[in-house]
Amino acid sequence: MTIRNAFWALVMGTVCLFAFFAATGAWDPAEAPAAAVAVGVLCVLWAAHAYAVHRHHRDSERDPALRHARERRGF
Q1: Which of 9, 27, 67, 72 has the fewest CB atoms lying closer than 10 Å?
Q2: Percent of the chain residues past pLDDT 70, beyond the cut
Q3: C-alpha span between 58 and 51 (Å, rounded)
Q4: What span, in angstroms and rounded, lies between the C-alpha atoms of 29 and 27?
């Protein structure tokens, strides 16, 4: 699980770094269209992964003790 999480963190870091350099004008995506397409694919893959993780956590069973404590406090 740790390697998988590290992979997705690296993917997101790559996408953010690409966006940062493109936004600051330090690097023009038109100079290397293959890299721009590869980062675009990574961005789509990360978005699909984030959606799947969100659905899994939303549908998973919550801790009953936490739910009880929340209901007791009135939240």
Answers
A1: 72
A2: 88
A3: 10
A4: 6
